[in-house]
Every structure is written in C-alpha cells, then in structure tokens.
C-alpha cells in the first residue's frame, strides 16, 4: 500500500530525529530512523495492525517506547499524520 507523509509527519519526524542527534547521538538517531522505516514497512503491508481510534478516525502504532506514529488509511493509501513524543502533551492537543 502506498504511504504518504503529511507535512506534519515530516516536521514531527525531523523534530524527533534532530532532538536525538543533539541530545543523544547520531547512532541513536539512526536507530530511530531504522525503526521508523521498519514500522512504515509493517503498516504498509498490514495497515489495520495499529490501534484504531474511532473518535478521531486514525490508527496509532508504537515506533519506539518514546514515539508513537499516528496514521490513517484513505482511498487505499496510508497517510502518516505525525510522530508523537509520548512524554509530551496529550495527542488531542496536536490535531
């Protein structure tokens, strides 16, 4: 299934990646990137694997302990909505 990155997904991915580079290491950031790619590959093959939220009409899947990917399936395509740092404010404030 085709995967499309929304602008918000690109921004939140970059923000999390840059945080890891600046505060941890390039190695940790690259491991995060690998986990993101694995997660996207998994949901592209099985888009209904994530936890579906009926109230907001999106699914979520844990990328790493600290980061959750929110996405939705529309017209046979997966739209990546955002990468949420689980230590931050509630998700409802982000949409």
From TrEMBL:
Family annotation (Gene3D superfamilies): RelE-like (3.30.2310.20)
Keyword entries, A-Z: Membrane, Toxin-antitoxin system, Transmembrane, Transmembrane helix
Keyword Membrane applies: yes
InterPro entries: RelE/ParE_toxin (IPR007712), RelE/ParE_toxin_dom_sf (IPR035093)
Regions crossing the membrane: 61-83
Native source organism of the sequence: Flavobacterium crocinum
Pfam families with a match to the protein in the record: ParE_toxin (PF05016)
Protein's name according to its UniProt entry: Type II toxin-antitoxin system RelE/ParE family toxin
């Amino acid at each position: 299934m085709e995967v499309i990155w929304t602008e918000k997904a690109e921004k939140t991915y970059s923000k999390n990646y840059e945080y890891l580079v600046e505060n941890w290491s390039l190695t940790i950031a690259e491991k995060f990137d690998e986990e993101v790619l694995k997660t996207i590959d998994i949901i592209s093959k099985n888009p209904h694997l994530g936890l579906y939220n009926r109230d907001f009409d999106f699914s979520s899947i844990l990328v790493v302990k600290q980061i959750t990917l929110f996405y939705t399936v529309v017209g046979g395509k997966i739209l990546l909505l955002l990468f949420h740092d689980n230590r931050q404010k509630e998700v409802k404030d982000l949409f």
